[in-house]
Amino acid sequence: MGASPIGKAMIAAMAAVAATTLAGAASAPLEPIEVRSRPITEFRIGRDDKAFGPLEFFGGLEMVSSAADFGALSAFRFTGGDGDFVGVADTGFWFFGRIERDADGRPTGLADFRMEQMIGPDGAGVRHKWEVDAEGLDVSDGVATVGFERDHRVAQFKLRPGKMTTAFRNLDFLVPAYELRQNRGFETVTRAPADGPLKGALVVVSEKSLDKSGNIFAAILQGPKKGVFTVRRSGDFDITDGAFLPNGDLLLLERSYTVAEGVKMRLRRIKGDAIAKGSVADGPILFEADMAYQIDNMEAMDVWRRADGALMVSLMSDDNHSILQRNLYLEFRAAR
Protein backbone atom coordinates (compact mmCIF):
# COMPACT_ATOMS: atom_id res chain seq x y z
CA MET A 1 0.00 0.00 0.00
CA GLY A 2 1.39 3.44 -0.92
CA ALA A 3 2.18 6.15 1.60
CA SER A 4 -0.45 8.71 2.56
CA PRO A 5 -0.12 12.32 1.35
CA ILE A 6 1.12 13.30 4.83
CA GLY A 7 3.61 10.40 4.81
CA LYS A 8 4.85 11.38 1.37
CA ALA A 9 5.33 14.97 2.53
CA MET A 10 7.30 13.80 5.57
CA ILE A 11 9.50 11.54 3.42
CA ALA A 12 10.14 14.39 0.98
CA ALA A 13 11.04 16.76 3.82
CA MET A 14 13.41 14.21 5.38
CA ALA A 15 15.08 13.62 2.00
CA ALA A 16 15.55 17.36 1.53
CA VAL A 17 17.14 17.70 4.96
CA ALA A 18 19.42 14.72 4.30
CA ALA A 19 20.47 16.12 0.94
CA THR A 20 21.21 19.50 2.50
CA THR A 21 23.20 17.87 5.30
CA LEU A 22 25.29 15.80 2.89
CA ALA A 23 25.89 18.78 0.63
CA GLY A 24 27.03 20.83 3.61
CA ALA A 25 29.35 18.06 4.78
CA ALA A 26 31.08 17.83 1.41
CA SER A 27 33.10 20.95 2.24
CA ALA A 28 33.62 22.97 5.43
CA PRO A 29 32.88 26.70 5.63
CA LEU A 30 35.71 29.11 4.88
CA GLU A 31 36.18 31.04 8.13
CA PRO A 32 37.42 34.67 7.88
CA ILE A 33 39.87 35.37 10.71
CA GLU A 34 41.11 38.73 11.93
CA VAL A 35 44.86 38.62 12.51
CA ARG A 36 46.77 41.39 14.26
CA SER A 37 50.41 41.74 13.27
CA ARG A 38 53.42 43.46 14.79
CA PRO A 39 56.26 44.11 12.32
CA ILE A 40 59.67 42.64 13.18
CA THR A 41 62.49 44.89 11.98
CA GLU A 42 65.45 43.16 13.68
CA PHE A 43 66.16 39.45 13.33
CA ARG A 44 68.87 39.43 15.99
CA ILE A 45 67.29 40.94 19.08
CA GLY A 46 68.72 44.36 19.92
CA ARG A 47 71.02 44.37 16.90
CA ASP A 48 70.58 45.90 13.46
CA ASP A 49 72.47 43.11 11.64
CA LYS A 50 71.06 42.40 8.19
CA ALA A 51 73.36 39.70 6.75
CA PHE A 52 72.94 36.10 7.93
CA GLY A 53 75.07 33.80 5.86
CA PRO A 54 74.12 34.34 2.22
CA LEU A 55 70.75 35.85 3.20
CA GLU A 56 69.65 39.37 4.14
CA PHE A 57 66.87 39.81 6.67
CA PHE A 58 64.08 41.76 5.01
CA GLY A 59 61.40 41.90 7.70
CA GLY A 60 58.90 39.84 9.61
CA LEU A 61 55.67 39.68 11.59
CA GLU A 62 54.47 38.46 14.96
CA MET A 63 50.85 37.39 14.42
CA VAL A 64 48.06 36.98 16.97
CA SER A 65 44.32 36.36 16.78
CA SER A 66 41.45 35.76 19.17
CA ALA A 67 40.10 33.04 16.84
CA ALA A 68 40.37 29.64 18.51
CA ASP A 69 41.50 27.87 15.34
CA PHE A 70 44.33 30.28 14.48
CA GLY A 71 47.81 28.86 14.95
CA ALA A 72 49.65 25.54 14.51
CA LEU A 73 50.86 26.76 11.09
CA SER A 74 52.94 23.87 9.73
CA ALA A 75 53.60 24.52 6.03
CA PHE A 76 52.80 27.11 3.38
CA ARG A 77 53.47 28.00 -0.25
CA PHE A 78 53.09 31.27 -2.11
CA THR A 79 50.70 30.98 -5.03
CA GLY A 80 51.13 34.38 -6.71
CA GLY A 81 53.50 37.30 -7.06
CA ASP A 82 51.16 39.56 -5.06
CA GLY A 83 51.79 37.68 -1.80
CA ASP A 84 48.88 35.21 -1.83
CA PHE A 85 49.62 31.97 0.02
CA VAL A 86 48.04 28.67 1.01
CA GLY A 87 49.06 26.56 3.97
CA VAL A 88 48.17 23.70 6.28
CA ALA A 89 47.87 23.62 10.07
CA ASP A 90 48.65 20.42 11.94
CA THR A 91 45.25 20.62 13.64
CA GLY A 92 43.51 19.72 10.38
CA PHE A 93 42.95 23.07 8.68
CA TRP A 94 43.81 24.76 5.41
CA PHE A 95 44.69 28.43 5.64
CA PHE A 96 44.76 31.14 2.99
CA GLY A 97 45.83 34.77 3.00
CA ARG A 98 48.03 37.51 1.63
CA ILE A 99 51.08 39.38 2.93
CA GLU A 100 50.56 43.14 3.07
CA ARG A 101 53.60 45.33 2.43
CA ASP A 102 54.78 48.91 2.81
CA ALA A 103 56.16 51.13 0.06
CA ASP A 104 59.56 49.40 0.34
CA GLY A 105 58.00 45.96 -0.01
CA ARG A 106 58.55 44.94 3.61
CA PRO A 107 55.83 42.87 5.34
CA THR A 108 53.40 44.83 7.51
CA GLY A 109 50.55 42.39 8.11
CA LEU A 110 48.22 39.66 6.88
CA ALA A 111 45.14 40.35 4.79
CA ASP A 112 42.14 38.22 3.84
CA PHE A 113 43.21 35.43 6.19
CA ARG A 114 40.84 32.45 6.16
CA MET A 115 40.82 28.90 7.51
CA GLU A 116 38.93 25.86 6.29
CA GLN A 117 38.60 22.53 8.05
CA MET A 118 39.95 19.45 6.30
CA ILE A 119 37.37 16.95 5.06
CA GLY A 120 37.58 13.21 5.60
CA PRO A 121 36.58 10.37 3.26
CA ASP A 122 33.08 10.39 4.75
CA GLY A 123 32.56 13.99 3.64
CA ALA A 124 32.64 15.37 7.19
CA GLY A 125 35.14 17.66 8.88
CA VAL A 126 37.92 15.80 10.70
CA ARG A 127 38.85 16.87 14.24
CA HIS A 128 41.02 13.96 15.41
CA LYS A 129 44.62 15.20 15.22
CA TRP A 130 46.06 11.77 14.47
CA GLU A 131 44.00 11.70 11.25
CA VAL A 132 44.90 15.21 10.01
CA ASP A 133 48.35 16.00 11.39
CA ALA A 134 49.30 17.92 8.23
CA GLU A 135 52.99 18.88 8.16
CA GLY A 136 54.26 19.30 4.58
CA LEU A 137 52.84 20.97 1.47
CA ASP A 138 53.48 21.36 -2.25
CA VAL A 139 51.21 23.32 -4.58
CA SER A 140 51.39 22.79 -8.33
CA ASP A 141 48.87 23.14 -11.19
CA GLY A 142 45.88 23.51 -8.88
CA VAL A 143 46.79 20.45 -6.80
CA ALA A 144 47.90 20.53 -3.14
CA THR A 145 50.07 17.60 -2.06
CA VAL A 146 50.14 17.21 1.72
CA GLY A 147 52.35 15.11 3.98
CA PHE A 148 50.65 13.77 7.12
CA GLU A 149 52.21 12.34 10.29
CA ARG A 150 50.80 9.74 12.70
CA ASP A 151 48.48 8.31 10.01
CA HIS A 152 51.40 8.51 7.58
CA ARG A 153 50.42 9.39 4.02
CA VAL A 154 51.10 11.78 1.16
CA ALA A 155 47.73 12.86 -0.19
CA GLN A 156 46.61 15.07 -3.06
CA PHE A 157 43.71 17.53 -3.02
CA LYS A 158 42.15 19.80 -5.61
CA LEU A 159 42.97 23.32 -4.47
CA ARG A 160 39.65 25.19 -4.32
CA PRO A 161 39.49 27.59 -1.36
CA GLY A 162 36.02 27.51 0.16
CA LYS A 163 35.27 24.23 -1.60
CA MET A 164 38.02 21.95 -0.34
CA THR A 165 37.02 18.29 -0.26
CA THR A 166 38.62 15.00 0.67
CA ALA A 167 41.82 13.80 -1.02
CA PHE A 168 41.40 12.37 -4.50
CA ARG A 169 44.64 10.37 -4.39
CA ASN A 170 47.19 8.94 -1.96
CA LEU A 171 50.72 8.65 -3.36
CA ASP A 172 53.15 5.80 -2.77
CA PHE A 173 55.76 7.42 -0.51
CA LEU A 174 58.24 4.53 -1.08
CA VAL A 175 59.74 4.60 2.44
CA PRO A 176 58.57 1.45 4.29
CA ALA A 177 55.75 2.52 6.61
CA TYR A 178 57.30 0.67 9.55
CA GLU A 179 60.35 2.95 9.29
CA LEU A 180 58.28 6.08 9.95
CA ARG A 181 58.07 7.19 13.59
CA GLN A 182 54.62 8.25 14.79
CA ASN A 183 55.31 11.97 15.16
CA ARG A 184 58.39 12.18 12.92
CA GLY A 185 56.94 11.69 9.44
CA PHE A 186 56.98 13.71 6.23
CA GLU A 187 57.40 17.36 7.20
CA THR A 188 58.90 18.27 3.81
CA VAL A 189 56.90 17.90 0.60
CA THR A 190 58.42 19.88 -2.24
CA ARG A 191 58.80 19.79 -6.01
CA ALA A 192 62.12 20.03 -7.82
CA PRO A 193 62.53 22.42 -10.78
CA ALA A 194 61.51 20.86 -14.09
CA ASP A 195 64.86 21.76 -15.66
CA GLY A 196 66.96 20.47 -12.74
CA PRO A 197 68.55 17.08 -12.03
CA LEU A 198 65.28 15.65 -10.67
CA LYS A 199 63.12 16.80 -13.61
CA GLY A 200 60.24 18.25 -11.58
CA ALA A 201 59.82 15.28 -9.21
CA LEU A 202 58.08 15.45 -5.86
CA VAL A 203 60.48 14.92 -2.97
CA VAL A 204 59.55 14.08 0.63
CA VAL A 205 61.80 14.25 3.68
CA SER A 206 60.85 12.98 7.12
CA GLU A 207 61.42 14.98 10.27
CA LYS A 208 63.30 12.33 12.25
CA SER A 209 62.60 8.83 10.99
CA LEU A 210 66.10 7.33 11.10
CA ASP A 211 67.73 4.38 9.38
CA LYS A 212 70.17 2.06 11.14
CA SER A 213 72.99 4.53 10.49
CA GLY A 214 71.08 7.39 12.12
CA ASN A 215 70.29 9.19 8.85
CA ILE A 216 66.89 10.67 8.00
CA PHE A 217 64.59 8.85 5.57
CA ALA A 218 63.53 10.68 2.40
CA ALA A 219 62.32 9.78 -1.08
CA ILE A 220 62.05 10.97 -4.68
CA LEU A 221 58.50 10.01 -5.63
CA GLN A 222 58.68 10.44 -9.40
CA GLY A 223 60.97 10.67 -12.39
CA PRO A 224 64.24 9.06 -13.49
CA LYS A 225 65.81 9.10 -9.99
CA LYS A 226 62.76 7.72 -8.18
CA GLY A 227 63.65 5.93 -4.98
CA VAL A 228 64.52 6.18 -1.30
CA PHE A 229 67.50 8.19 -0.07
CA THR A 230 68.55 9.61 3.28
CA VAL A 231 69.74 12.95 4.62
CA ARG A 232 72.66 12.91 7.02
CA ARG A 233 71.50 13.98 10.48
CA SER A 234 73.74 16.62 11.96
CA GLY A 235 73.77 17.31 15.70
CA ASP A 236 70.41 17.34 17.45
CA PHE A 237 68.55 19.11 14.63
CA ASP A 238 65.43 17.68 12.96
CA ILE A 239 64.10 18.65 9.52
CA THR A 240 60.85 20.65 9.58
CA ASP A 241 60.50 21.79 5.94
CA GLY A 242 62.29 22.17 2.65
CA ALA A 243 62.06 23.94 -0.70
CA PHE A 244 64.07 23.77 -3.89
CA LEU A 245 66.15 26.66 -5.16
CA PRO A 246 65.88 27.56 -8.86
CA ASN A 247 69.17 25.77 -9.66
CA GLY A 248 67.88 22.45 -8.24
CA ASP A 249 69.59 22.57 -4.83
CA LEU A 250 67.39 21.73 -1.84
CA LEU A 251 67.15 24.17 1.07
CA LEU A 252 66.23 22.51 4.37
CA LEU A 253 64.80 24.19 7.47
CA GLU A 254 65.94 22.47 10.67
CA ARG A 255 64.98 22.87 14.32
CA SER A 256 66.44 21.85 17.67
CA TYR A 257 65.04 22.10 21.19
CA THR A 258 66.56 21.34 24.59
CA VAL A 259 65.49 22.51 28.02
CA ALA A 260 68.96 23.91 28.65
CA GLU A 261 69.34 25.90 25.42
CA GLY A 262 65.78 26.42 24.25
CA VAL A 263 64.84 26.41 20.59
CA LYS A 264 67.22 26.81 17.65
CA MET A 265 66.82 26.89 13.88
CA ARG A 266 69.13 26.64 10.92
CA LEU A 267 69.15 26.41 7.13
CA ARG A 268 71.13 23.72 5.28
CA ARG A 269 71.72 23.53 1.51
CA ILE A 270 71.84 20.16 -0.28
CA LYS A 271 73.25 20.01 -3.81
CA GLY A 272 70.68 18.78 -6.32
CA ASP A 273 73.03 16.17 -7.79
CA ALA A 274 73.52 14.69 -4.30
CA ILE A 275 69.85 13.65 -4.18
CA ALA A 276 69.48 10.21 -5.76
CA LYS A 277 68.21 6.74 -4.95
CA GLY A 278 70.39 5.16 -2.28
CA SER A 279 72.43 8.29 -1.60
CA VAL A 280 73.16 9.92 1.77
CA ALA A 281 72.68 13.63 1.03
CA ASP A 282 74.44 16.32 3.02
CA GLY A 283 75.44 19.94 2.63
CA PRO A 284 76.70 23.08 4.34
CA ILE A 285 74.88 25.03 7.04
CA LEU A 286 74.00 28.51 5.74
CA PHE A 287 73.28 30.01 9.15
CA GLU A 288 72.02 29.09 12.60
CA ALA A 289 69.96 31.10 15.11
CA ASP A 290 69.04 30.60 18.76
CA MET A 291 66.96 32.40 21.38
CA ALA A 292 68.99 35.58 20.85
CA TYR A 293 67.09 35.92 17.57
CA GLN A 294 63.44 36.42 16.66
CA ILE A 295 62.64 32.74 16.26
CA ASP A 296 60.25 30.20 17.71
CA ASN A 297 59.23 26.69 16.65
CA MET A 298 60.17 27.28 12.98
CA GLU A 299 58.21 24.72 10.95
CA ALA A 300 57.41 26.17 7.52
CA MET A 301 59.42 27.57 4.61
CA ASP A 302 59.01 28.63 1.02
CA VAL A 303 61.39 29.92 -1.66
CA TRP A 304 59.90 32.35 -4.17
CA ARG A 305 60.69 35.23 -6.51
CA ARG A 306 59.50 38.81 -6.14
CA ALA A 307 58.23 40.77 -9.11
CA ASP A 308 61.65 42.47 -9.37
CA GLY A 309 63.37 39.07 -9.67
CA ALA A 310 64.81 38.93 -6.13
CA LEU A 311 64.97 35.42 -4.68
CA MET A 312 63.23 35.27 -1.28
CA VAL A 313 63.16 32.76 1.56
CA SER A 314 60.18 32.96 3.92
CA LEU A 315 59.66 31.10 7.21
CA MET A 316 56.72 30.56 9.56
CA SER A 317 56.54 29.17 13.09
CA ASP A 318 54.04 26.78 14.68
CA ASP A 319 52.88 27.97 18.12
CA ASN A 320 51.26 24.61 19.00
CA HIS A 321 48.36 26.71 20.38
CA SER A 322 50.53 27.44 23.41
CA ILE A 323 50.60 30.76 25.25
CA LEU A 324 54.36 30.24 25.61
CA GLN A 325 54.98 30.23 21.85
CA ARG A 326 54.46 32.65 18.97
CA ASN A 327 53.25 32.66 15.36
CA LEU A 328 56.02 34.32 13.37
CA TYR A 329 56.60 35.15 9.71
CA LEU A 330 60.20 35.90 8.70
CA GLU A 331 61.46 37.00 5.29
CA PHE A 332 65.00 36.93 3.84
CA ARG A 333 66.43 38.03 0.52
CA ALA A 334 69.17 36.00 -1.14
CA ALA A 335 72.38 37.87 -1.78
CA ARG A 336 72.53 39.23 -5.29
Description:
By secondary structure, this protein is mostly beta strands. The protein has 1 helix and 24 strands. The strands form 5 sheets. Strands 2, 3, 4, 22, 23 and 24 form a 6-stranded antiparallel sheet that branches. The protein has a 5-stranded antiparallel sheet with strand order 1-8-7-6-5, with no helix packed on it. It is globular. The chain starts with a helix and ends with a strand.
Q: What is the element string, with H for helices and E for strands?
A: HEEEEEEEEEEEEEEEEEEEEEEEE
What is the number of helices?
A: 1
Largest sheet: 6 strands, antiparallel
Residue-averaged pLDDT, rounded?
90
Percentage beta strand: over 45%
Low-confidence residue ranges? 1-25
**Radius of gyration from the CA trace?**
21 Å
Termini Cα gap: 83 Å
Which outline best applies?
globular
Count of strand segments: 24
> How much helix, percentage-wise, in residues?
under 10%
Structural class: mainly beta
